[in-house]
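Entry 14. Ran structure prediction on the chain below.
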Amino acid sequence: MVMFKVTRVETTPFEGQKPCTSGLRKKVKVFIQPHYLQNFGQVTFNALGADRVIKGSTLVVSGDGRYYSKDAIQIITKMAAANGVRRVWIGQNGLLSTPAVSAVVRERVGADGSKATGAFILTASHNPGGPHEDFGIKYNMENGGPAPEGITNKIYQNTTTIKEYLVAEGLPDVDISTTGVSIFEGPEGKFDVDIFYSTSDYLKLMKSIFDFPSIKTLLSSPQFSFCYDALHGVAGVHAKRISVEELGANESSLVNCVPKEDFGGGHPDPNLTYAKELVALMGLSETHTEPNPPEFGAAADGDGDRNMVLGKRFFVTPSDSVAIIAANAVQAIPYFSGGLKRVARSMPTSAVLDVVAKHLNLKFFEVPTGWEFFGNLMDAGMCSICGEESFGTGSDHIREKDGIWAVLAWLSILAYKNKNNLGGGNLVTVEDIVRQHWATYGRHYYTRYDYENVDAGGAKDLMAHLVILQSSIDEVNKYLF
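Output, structure tokens:
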């Protein structure tokens, strides 16, 4: 058995290591500086240690596979061992979508009965990857959701005063490509590293939510065709296992489903701008005419928590998508057969979900941007389905938005609507469902503008100015009107 000892390494603070609920995101060149990642890992352990038991705990360490992930996994694993963590769980090849991490934290039980108390997720979400692009790290709590502001504030405070970090000297790099458990010995006893099949726990959860046989019947119909584009992100790992091996879809239905460290040189953001290949395949490109698009298409972002849904030559807005899922969930998705609790949306999301909630006699919530606010409602048993205009949709099965869940929800609705049509009747299409939704609840419009690579100082000054304006509604009204 390999023995390791704990070494204390002197360090000094780095400026700008302030995490938000999506964690710390910087360029790779920033993260690969000596001590940079180690500092952030240690201040996170220190922040958690103030309120929670780190020694003897079980942590998940995985991510979307972007450049620098493999190195970061080894660094965080050795730091976990040095800080007294009992075991680390890593998805095979270090790959776990953000929703899959949440599922593992909430659902997985180790062979010895252990449960995870949290997770380090190595991702910058929908940001580009590669040696000159972005890397990120965030911590999720025991509920599977992002760390709350109380924790992230402690983490930031610690970044300004850190003087040393701990590392397990003599602990070798672990082969993350092969499943199995490696056992080591340190000053405080045994330390295990468990490499497990990335999709097993997530698939089990999805099968408890959806009627897989009915979706399989839909996908096997010659009347129905679909395409899923993972944009070379981690969702491709889960998509192949679920759609091809479980639901019997043709592997040719999967596009860009091999994860790559640089996402194939693309921008892994599932929208009409960046998912160009899928947009063209679905007949929505202004410059490319597809003679026979699939009936259903979907895309995922780099870490698999966002989704875009398309029909044949038809785009479904994220705001409409969550409302349509909520309106049909009780009939089409077994998990919700007993009824919805309440629903929620972020402030920028259109009000169509409000109308659906009123129609279903449900209370609804409007929350600030940030999935942790949905998580608070779910932990209190006050929300079943939620979504945001930035292509994020989810439910209380986990505490993150979930792109594959949203796709399965749409396939469930299509399967339900077409349960009597697959023998030769007219197929109820994505466009049919959306237009019927508009006819019932009205059509809601909204606009979102993304400003990318803006100067951080200028953006901060702008927000500070808006806060000042907000302090007096009368002044704001005079200023605008």
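Residues 295 and 429 are 7 Å apart (CA to CA). Will compare against last week's run tomorrow.
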